[in-house]
Every structure is written in structure tokens, then in C-alpha cells.
């Protein structure tokens, strides 16, 4: 296969890309052990079982930096912006997750959607119910997938059935941390939904919990929608900005990921950068809910970590290549086009680095987990017409980001095991 990845964590994706034409990738157990020119790889590993992916393009498994697993079924819900969309569609849907059976069923469907689209790791919101996080961790464990999730915490401005309290948010979250964080490839994220749905007491208690677990993730929403931002001002009059609410309660740090960041001041960007925190760029969602245009050029100026994200169910596709295609269109409006290698970086190594997981995922370096995707640049007539046999990596990725869908995902490997189609499990070794 042709193989593309970023071996280094860097802010200059173009220079750091390795693009190996006619390459070979060797997998042993759940890890990558070698990568290089096919003939040399074949000579070095003569006994390896070979899987032929000629004319395909292998890239690292894609990382979704912000997504809601319970919202899978409510994708493409018409007509509202953020706050009314939450009331009309989101909260009623999330109420269904009071049933553990329902959580299990939807967790499997969600993971099927991820792997069909080449996504091998996600930072996902569950619902307020602890057992929703249990269900997602259990389903991900069956696939040996690096899943990061947490139960949502909210104790106001939501239906009673979806409300916890400051105390139960902490005790339930801590029980889940002890049960799942670091078990297999599972990782926990403390998950206050967003500032308006938590009391000061809850945010404060979650900040204290976060301090006790410095390597646990934090995920929430930030500065997505103008009405939301006004509401936060009214609810927290003492805080100098929306981000300052999170900072004040100890929820701004490394491994904290803030969804959206659409309406940001330079001070906000500087604070995110200083903390080593991450902005999740959710272009299809920001368009779908009419939220606004993420300013990647400005985020880059401040050196803020960025992870690309689907944000399904407000996002319109699980496919991160397509999501980059939407990011490209927004960047054109902003007058600073994001090229395809930056796109690939934001969904692989860049996202992994932002999440502080680059030792394990986001690249194809020996010793990293064998999480990778086989793309088919000629998956339909139009892509075959558009992408000729000699096309370069950036051009292939760009065309697929506009034309592609799950048909261009030929295979998705997680920890060395093929996830799509047949029950093939290539446990011994794979090269291509
Ligand atoms: N802000 C608070 N909750 C949500 C949510 O579920 N989706 C989005 N897009 N924004 C939010
Ligand atoms: Fe979201």
C-alpha cells in the first residue's frame, strides 16, 4: 500500500509527513513493529502473512476529539440552534438512556458507525446515567479500542430525569474512574456538560475531583453560540469570561478538551495555550446549528492544541475526512484555507498530541498501537475520474474529504484486528 503518517509531533505537518509509496506495515499482536519500503519489509519479515492493499492509502486510525454517543439516533434533526435544539431534541433522546439495555444497544451502533468511518479513538460524552459510560467502555473493550468517555454531569437547567447533584456527580464520576480509567485501553473524562447546566457547587466539586486525578481527561463545551455566551454571563457575573468559569473552578488544564471555541477572544486563546488545553474544532456542527466559524488561523497564532471533531448529533457526519472537508470550506470563508495535510494532522497525530496520547496512537511508529485505516481512493466512478493513479497524498486526501463517505474506508484496524466486513482477525502479523 501507499502509507502516510506524521512520525513526529510538530506544528509543520507538511514537512513532517512521511509518504511511502509501495510501502509495507508490519503488525505483531496489537502493535506496529515496522514500516518502510515494501521490498525491504518483505525481505526483513519473510514469514509474515501478507495482505495486499496495492493502490490503497494507509493512514493512522482517525481520532474524533468531541462526539456524543447517545446522540447517534438524533443526527440531522431540523431547525433549531443550540439552546432550543438541546431542549427539543437532545434532552428527550438522552432520557432514553435510563435503560441499560438501551445504552448497550446504542453503544454497539455508535462503535459500528465509528469504525465504518475509520475512527479508532473518540473522546465521547455519555449521558448523565453512569451505566451509559459503563456500556460504552464495555463495548469498546470488546474491540480493544482506546475509548475516552465519562458520564455527563448536570444539576440545573435540564429535565429532572437528567439531573444529578454536586455530590452524586463526584461520587459517580469517581467510581467510574476507579472502575475504568486505565483498564485495558479505556480512559476516563470528567464531563460537566457545559457551564449553564452546572451549579457553582457542582463545578467546584468536579474541579476538586480533577485535582485528585491529574491524568484523567476533562471534556465540556465552550463559547459555541452567542445566546449561550450571554446566558453564561448572567449566570456567572463574577467571572471575566466563559472560559474563566472553567479556569476558576479548576477545570482548565492539560488533557482538558473544550468543544467548539467559536467565539473566542485573544485572551481566551492565550489561556487555552498557557494551560496546554485543547480546542475541539467541530465544523459540521458549527454550521448545522448556525453557531459560527472557528478561527483556526488565530488558534494557530496562539499555538493552541486542536483536535478535529464530528460532534454528532449536532455534527452531520461521523466521517472525519468529510469533517475536514467542512473545515476547509469554513477556512475558505475565513480567507485562510486549511490544506489536507493539516486536515490529516488534526485527525491523527495532532489530535493524539493534543490529548497527550501520541506515544500510543495517531501515528504508525513502531511500538504504537496498530490502529490504522485503509482508504480506497477509487471507491466510486467520480473519485476514480478525479484521482489518477499518480496522485500525491495531499491531493488524494483532499478529494476524498469532499467526495468521500464510508465507501472509501476499505478497512479499519484496531489493535491489529480488522473491524469491517468478514470476521478476519489478523492477529499474527499484517503487512501491506
Ligand atoms: N452544549 C451543551 N450540550 C451540548 C451538546 O450536546 N451538543 C452541542 N453541540 N453543544 C452543547
Ligand atoms: Fe458537543
TrEMBL record:
Cofactor binding notes: Binds 1 zinc ion per subunit.
Domain Aminodeoxyfutalosine deaminase/Imidazolonepropionase-like composite: 23-48
Known cofactor(s): Zn(2+)
InterPro entries from the UniProt entry: Amidohydro-rel, Guanine_deaminase, Metal-dep_hydrolase_composite, Metal_Hydrolase, Metallo-dep_hydrolases, MQNX/HUTI_composite_N
Domain of life, per lineage: Bacteria
UniProt keyword list: Hydrolase, Metal-binding, Zinc
Enzyme Commission code(s) on record: 3.5.4.3
Catalyzed reactions: guanine + H2O + H(+) = xanthine + NH4(+)
A biological process from GO: guanine catabolic process
Pathway of action: Purine metabolism; guanine degradation; xanthine from guanine: step 1/1
GO molecular function, one term: zinc ion binding
Annotated ranges, domain Amidohydrolase-related: 58-416
GO CC annotations on file: cytosol
Function description: Catalyzes the hydrolytic deamination of guanine, producing xanthine and ammonia.
PANTHER family recorded: GUANINE DEAMINASE (PTHR11271)
Family: Belongs to the metallo-dependent hydrolases superfamily. ATZ/TRZ family.
Protein name stated in the entry: Guanine deaminase
Lineage, highest ranks first: Bacteria, Pseudomonadati, Pseudomonadota, Gammaproteobacteria, Alteromonadales
